[in-house]
């Protein structure tokens, strides 16, 4: 019997099912209104919300843990990496190492939490006269035990550096965020990432397909896990099987797999990587290998706050006029037009 491409299918909720080495994936899509002088929504949008813990869509958007500006005020991480893929809107970053940034509209931030860092991710509503749509993917990628306590580090994959691939007479558009697609290679990830070793076959892409288009995914015999998320559109055919929107599919990487659209466009996000195959012990923002290591993480965080918080407030946002930039912990500054 021929091996099938499809191993498992499942509906997509707010948090998407993942496979080792990935721990978490969520798709944030919010239709934020025009911003006020504080870069948050006007106060009349706050009525009926559970401010500081608002994950229910109201008026087209969520505030998440933000009370003035939407987003996620300062919080700790240890033992894994966050990959933030921003399709629309902007994210303001600040962290306990003194690093900061503003990125969005196609940029990606790849942060290795390692031995511990606090960071905030706020969504400033920069326009005071027009809506501020936000769309992003947040992905958690595990670290092997040997790298769980490396020094924290983040790297910017600016949209100008990300390879954009076109197939099927330009009807298929691929953002190559990690890994390789045939002869094309993504920007290198942070040095201590699971993705930094090529044999781990980490592959992350966002695919936009026009109606009546098709593309064949690269084949790999590395033993990697491949997860496909069909998050936008009405129908997508994978080989001979058709799926409806907001469906996830686990695929075999060593079977030729062709994606085909019908009368409507489709958007697909793919996470792939060779499994780490280590015990995972997760408690909130910490991901280690044992209960004892989780306890150590909490004790160290309470003792040191992973370097403290050098900013005026935990929901730190940058000046409205500030462009895209990254200030790293070593003082290096990148600025984009």
Automatic annotation (TrEMBL):
InterPro entries xrefs: Pirin, Pirin_C_dom, Pirin_N_dom, RmlC-like_jellyroll, RmlC_Cupin_sf
Transmembrane segments: none
KW Metal-binding (keyword) present: yes
Residue stretches making up the Pirin C-terminal domain: 205-307
Superkingdom to which the source organism belongs: Bacteria
Metal-binding recorded as keyword: yes
Cofactor: Fe cation
Cofactor notes: Binds 1 Fe cation per subunit.
Domain Pirin N-terminal: 47-141
CDD domains documented for this protein: cupin_pirin_N
Alphabetically ordered keywords of this record: Iron, Metal-binding
Molecular function as annotated in GO: metal ion binding
One family name in Pfam for this protein: Pirin
List of residues binding Fe cation: 75, 77, 119, 121
Protein family per UniProt: Belongs to the pirin family.
Protein name: Pirin family protein
């Amino acid at each position: 019997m021929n091996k099938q491409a499809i191993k498992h299918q499942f509906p997509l909720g707010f948090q998407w099912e993942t496979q080792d080495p990935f721990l978490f994936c969520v798709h944030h899509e919010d239709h934020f209104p025009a911003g006020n002088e504080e870069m948050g929504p006007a106060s009349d949008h706050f009525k009926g919300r559970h401010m500081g813990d608002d994950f229910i869509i109201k008026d087209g958007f969520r505030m998440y843990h933000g009370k003035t500006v939407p987003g996620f005020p300062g919080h700790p991480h240890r033992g894994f990496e966050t990959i933030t893929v921003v399709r629309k809107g902007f994210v303001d970053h600040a962290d306990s190492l003194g690093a900061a940034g503003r990125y969005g509209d196609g940029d990606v931030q790849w942060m290795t939490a390692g031995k511990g860092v606090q960071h905030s991710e706020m969504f400033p509503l920069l326009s005071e006269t027009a809506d501020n749509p936000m769309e992003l993917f947040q992905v958690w990628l595990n670290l092997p035990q040997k790298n769980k306590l490396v020094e924290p580090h983040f790297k910017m994959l600016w949209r100008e550096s990300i390879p954009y691939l076109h197939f099927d007479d330009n009807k298929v558009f691929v953002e190559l965020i990690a890994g390789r697609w045939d002869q094309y290679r993504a920007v290198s990830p942070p040095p201590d990432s699971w993705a930094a070793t090529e044999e781990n076959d980490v592959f992350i892409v966002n695919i936009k397909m026009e109606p009546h288009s098709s593309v064949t995914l690269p084949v790999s015999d590395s033993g990697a896990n491949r997860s496909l998320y069909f998050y936008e559109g009405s129908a997508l055919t994978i080989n001979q099987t058709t799926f409806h929107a907001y469906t996830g599919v686990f695929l075999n990487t060593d079977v030729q797999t062709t994606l085909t659209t019908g009368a409507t466009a489709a958007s697909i996000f793919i996470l792939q990587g060779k499994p780490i195959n280590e015990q995972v012990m997760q408690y909130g923002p910490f991901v280690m290998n044992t209960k004892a290591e989780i306890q150590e993480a909490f004790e160290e965080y309470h003792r040191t706050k992973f370097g403290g918080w050098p900013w005026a407030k935990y929901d730190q946002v940058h000046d409205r006029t500030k462009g895209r930039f990254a200030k790293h912990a070593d003082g290096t500054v990148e600025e984009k037009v």
